[in-house]
Amino acid sequence: MTLTMPSPSVATQTTEIQTADRLIALTRVSSTAPGTDPAVQALALATAANLPVLLWGQPGIGKSSTLTQLADGLDLPLETVIASVHEPSDFAGLPVIGADPAAQGVAMAPPDWAVRLSRTGKGLLFLDELSSAPPAVQAALLRVVLERRVGSLALPESVRIVAAANPANSAADGWQLAPPLANRFVHLAWVHDPEIVVRGLGGTWPYIPLPRLDPARLERSVARARSAVCGFLTARPDYTHRMPTSANSRGGAWPSPRTWEMVLRLLAFGYAAGADIEAIALAVRGAVGDGAGMELLAFLEQRDLPDPEEVLADPDGADVPARGDRVHAMLCAVVDAIKRDATQARWEAGWTLVARLAELVPIDLLVAPAMQLADLRDPLWAAPEQLDRLSALGEVLAWAD
Amino acid sequence: MGGLSSPARPEALDPAAEIDMAKLLAARRTAVAAAPYLATALHALTIVPSYGVPTMAVDRYWRCYASPAFVAMTELPDLAVVWLHEVSHLVRDHHRRAERLMERSRNHKSAGTPALDPEHPLAARIRMNIAMDCEINDDLVESFGDETTVKLRLPKGAVTPMGLQIKNGALFEEYVRLLPKLVLNGDLAWVECGSGAHGGEAPWELDGSGAQAIGEFEAAAIRFRVREALLDKRRWGTVPQGWKRWAEGGAEPMQDWRALLGSTLRGCLAAGRGAGDYSYRRPSRRAASLDGSVVLPSLRSILPRVAVVVDTSGSVTDADLGSALAEVAAICRSVGAHGSQVGVYSCDAAVHTVQQICRAEELNLVGGGGTDMRKGIGRAAAARPRPDVIVVLTDGFTPWPADNPGGRVIAGIFGSDSRYSEDDDDDDYAPSLPPDWIETVRLCR
Which of A207-211, A225-229, A235-239, B127-131 has the least mean pLDDT? Predict the structure, then answer.
């Protein structure tokens, strides 16, 4: 090798490179705003609940960058492991032969990322390209994901695990996710929202805020989540364990005792954080699958209607649901309750409720219940004084004739 | 009616004050009485009076936009039908189905023209909206023909398949293809039902944060309630056929069969013994770093063998067969199986030819008699070396073997109108369902 004198052009080249690097750095400057997308919130919810999350998405839509943002936001060190390029032994531990294997056994040494996570005591483990990992690697990952053991090393409890996978039809060499591994994750479909991409390239990326848990609500949330899941599974025991029949959906979310436990935790976190129902729904469906998740949420929606007796006890102060169909359902339940035990006081409380609702919701919802209520009148009872607040009801009825 | 553009109005006029809310709500009540199974959905809608909308329209967040002028000039029974019509768009999940159809048209690669022209999104939207109106209105007519229900009729000028002289009782995905080239004539009413129908944003719509937006999952819960109400047996008498089908899941839009066949086949190829996995046949090179004292396996890939049994009994068209075979061949190639790895068996009542193919074009299919796929499957399974995956492409009118011959079997079953086949009572031979151990994929247009 011969040494050459640095020519004058080298100096200018260096500065060119530095300028180029500065330009690159400038294009990377961006600020963040909290993400409002339900998928993002569901990811935050599941991460807070320390449940393994699997993001399904086409290559290149920013799953990895989402994870970087998540780790930044949580202030956790990010360890990215590309599952498909690793061997089973990288997750099960590399055998290290000591002086006397027969007496001491063979130690299964963990790889460096696991040691780093264990040493810091916290972190975010990101398993990328999970669906491209061969079955043997997937089997080795089972223990990492569920029991948090890498070889003979146990990862600290606070380490969060997130994985990413490409849907089988977009990766020609893709594997079906093995059902036991699939059943350990909360599955979230990750799609790119053109609006978010535009805003991000304009300089503002969404960050993922962790749900803010209300310390005063913790016990109540757990009790509510328990009664929700138990109530549903009592009504629909067939959903306790239901493995899908088609090979395709077995690699996704499906109901099993393990995933119902995940749902319990997700609901408790959702309730404690006062999370958006859309985000909770997304996370729950990601855990037990669309069918079971949907039925659970419909069941809860019906069950979470205010208790008719409580409403009758305080018709002026009772909570009123926001959506018209739920107001209607609540009112029907109240009228049914009055029908079961018709006293003048309850009947008048019913009218107070109707008159109050007339100012809050579209009036046509009240027509049928109000007419049923009118039919319940005992001839001895005076006409309810609330009727003059219900003139709008008369207008609607006039049209119907 | 129809495509009236909104006249310029002074800002001072408040649509909420102008609109005859009592009439609009009375119409909703009439609609609920006529179709009690839709009550939940109708009640969940939020009303937004607007001058921008020509008639009535819905957005994807379950808000119903109504024009004060339209409400004033439309008779109450007609208005009730419009309510039912608009809410049907949402219950039938038209906007998401529209997005899927657009997506599929955009990614259209195989033979034939895509259902929509993605180059002209506005025209595609109108076509879809008309097709959706057909899907809804053919049922509305059916439900109100009955004297026992509230007397409602379809307003004059409403889009119906009969009016357009195309067949009845289809889904909008099919209607889009059936629509005549030029459908825009002056008589068609409400061809703009908003983003709740065709998925494209209309200028009068509020954004997702506006008044009482209902998200995807709440909407799914509402659909679930409607489905429950429809499946309530006590109400069967008054429910129109189309809604019955919808509730039973028979009206779910078909997933693209290419994607289904592809992922099933890939799954089988991967799960079969042929796929790449760790093997001790050749030790891992990493073993060197362990002083050679431990033998580690290395990643080996063995090419899978695929047998394709093709039904050439005449009831399957060559075009259908060709496209399915091309798909299978392409998938096999992508996992590295080609040439002698893929065998094709032409089979009707007997096996005619056996070929090893590289490309679907090299194939010639012989046959055209009765159908017995058992012969083909048996022959394929008897081949040595044994195939890992057997793909059967048939119209389904065949007996199936009683026992698994070994390996994985996928049945791709052709059928364009399988959804409504239960109506054809005069059918002598119903297709027999493949046994459980066969993965079944329905191949539709």
Answer: A207-211
Whether the pLDDT of residue A120 is over 70: the answer is yes
B80: distance to nearest CA of chain A, Å? 11
The helix (H) or strand (E) run that includes residue B276 is none
pTM: 0.73
B276-329 confidence digits (pLDDT tens) = 566 666 666 666 666 666 666 666 666 677 888 888 776 666 777 777 777 777
The string of DSSP codes covering B145-165 is: TSTTS----PPTT---TTTTT
Angstrom distances, CA of residue A117 to CA of A107, A111, A151, A154, A399: 19, 10, 14, 10, 70
- Chain B CB contacts of A194 under 8 Å are none
A212: Cα separation from own chain's centroid = 14
Residue A206 contacts B, CB cutoff 8 Å: no
Query: Shortest CA distance to A96 belongs to which of A105, A106, A88?
Result: A106
> Chain B contact for A38, CB < 8 A?
yes
Across the interface, of A278, A298, A325, the residue whose CB is closest to B44 is A325
Nearest to B29 among A97, A248, A367 (CB): A367
Q: Which residues pair with B307 in a beta bridge?
A: B343, B390
List the single best residue of B20, B21, B23, B29 to mutate versus A (max A Cβ within 10 A): B29
Task: Judge: A278–B218 Cβ closer than 8 Å, yes or no.
Answer: yes
Which is it for strands A149-150 and A153-154: parallel, antiparallel or unpaired?
antiparallel
Strand-strand pairing, A107-109 and B56-58: unpaired
Using CB atoms, pick whichever of B215, B222, B262 lies closest to residue A278: B215
Tell me the helices (H) and strands (E) count for chain B, helix number first: 13, 11
pLDDT in tens, B393-441: 887 777 888 887 777 788 888 765 444 344 444 444 556 678 877 877 7
Residues of chain B neighbouring A364 (CB-CB closer than 8 A): 25-26, 28-29, 32
Please state, in angstroms and rounded to a whole number, the distance separating the CA atoms of residues B370 and B373: 10
Give the pLDDT confidence of A254-295 residue by residue, as tens digits.
Answer: 999 999 999 999 999 999 998 888 889 999 999 998 888 888
Q: What letter represents residue A171's amino acid?
A: A
A395 contacts chain B (CB < 8 A): yes
- Contacts for B139-145: CB closer than 8 Å, 24+ residues apart: B139/B88, B139/B240, B139/B241, B139/B242, B139/B243, B140/B81, B140/B84, B140/B85, B140/B88, B140/B240, B142/B240, B142/B241, B142/B242, B143/B34, B143/B35, B143/B238, B143/B239, B143/B240, B143/B243, B144/B34, B144/B81
